[in-house]
């Protein structure tokens, strides 16, 4: 029964998201999870990929611990970042979209979360995947916060 419900949910979300199946292009489930320090990931690298985080097919893949820990990983990620000139950033989840099959979800389907990041008068929108992994790096438009 649970699988039928998950399948129905996946179909409904697919239709509401335009019907196209999401293909995430930057998954690397062998990537190591970053260590944390002072409540954030110890990030040291910047991406060279301009799409990283800004599009559905190149989301920020934070990996999977368990479904209850996912919000903590989002906080660890964004707390490691600052605006382009070191400004404090604020982030908030604004939507969920883009279903895809995932064995790492209790429902059999994963989704992307959409976050708005603001600093000064600027707002950036990022896609975050909490089900798959890839190397976690700083997206273009932000900097790594100095401790």
TrEMBL record:
It comes from the Bacteria. Keywords: Signal. The keyword Signal applies. Residues 1-20 form the signal peptide. This is 2-dehydro-3-deoxyphosphooctonate aldolase.
């Amino acid at each position: 029964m649970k699988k039928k419900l998950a399948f129905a949910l996946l179909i409904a979300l697919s239709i509401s998201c335009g019907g196209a199946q999401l293909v995430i292009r930057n998954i690397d489930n062998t990537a190591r999870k970053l260590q944390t320090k002072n409540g954030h990931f110890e990030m040291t690298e910047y991406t060279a990929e301009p799409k990283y985080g800004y599009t559905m097919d190149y989301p920020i893949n934070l990996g999977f611990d368990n479904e209850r820990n996912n919000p903590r990983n989002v906080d660890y990620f964004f707390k490691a970042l600052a605006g382009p000139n070191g400004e404090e950033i604020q982030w908030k989840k604004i939507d969920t979209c883009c279903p895809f099959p995932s064995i790492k979800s209790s429902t059999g389907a994963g989704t992307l979360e959409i976050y708005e990041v603001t600093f000064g008068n600027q707002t950036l929108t990022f896609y975050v995947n909490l089900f798959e992994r890839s190397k976690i790096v700083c997206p273009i438009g932000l900097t790594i916060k100095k401790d």
